[in-house]
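Run log, item B.
One chain of 227 residues. Sequence copied directly from the ordering sheet:
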Amino acid sequence: MEYVVGILLGFIALNFLLKIGFYESFYGILAAGVACSLFILAIWPWATEQSKTQIADFLASPARMQDAAVMITIESTVMIAFCFDCFAGFRRHDTFFKRNLTRILKYYPGLLITLVLAYTLTQTIFAFPGISFHRMAWSFAAISGIGVVGAGWFLKKYLGDRSLRLELLFVTNLFIILTGIIATENGKTSYESVSNVNIYATLVTLGIFVAGGLIGFIWKMIKKTRI
């Protein structure tokens, strides 16, 4: 489990660094780095109260891991939506809702980086027991902030091509979703399959899907007729 969690956190960190690279200026990346440092300084008293046993109990709890998997899936879905929304320039009809949704997706950096920072901070404290907690927190905050800014800017400049970064962001989120799904404890996956199928619910969903498609097609034909 610890290896799976480590891989998952690594992908989440890469996902965050790629996402902030889509900010238009360096100041956006700088703001993300400062926010990470401030977050670390805000939680370090809580981190010093944690123990390896508490963290192990959390990772061993199927219910908590299921909740974490749901949050991971939701955030990855938002990031994938951003990737698809980057093709918004090709759409013919724009609305107030679409413009604001695009703005939200563009500036949303990803909140799961807070889990990565909190976990890494606790592991760093465990690794250096003889150092003052206050000094450790400030050092870790400074290193993390500089690392986020440097890595985010480096990926943006090194990869360069926006389409390549979009593809990498998309693939990274697919890996995050898959890693969250296969996170298991005692052979039990976070998402359990069901053996029965609700025929009525399936038919209703299919009917709504078909009806929505027909309504959209009819509306499009009416607009063309008016033109």
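Observations after the first pass:
- The mean pLDDT is 81.
- The longest helix spans residues 199-226.
Flagged for discussion on Thursday.
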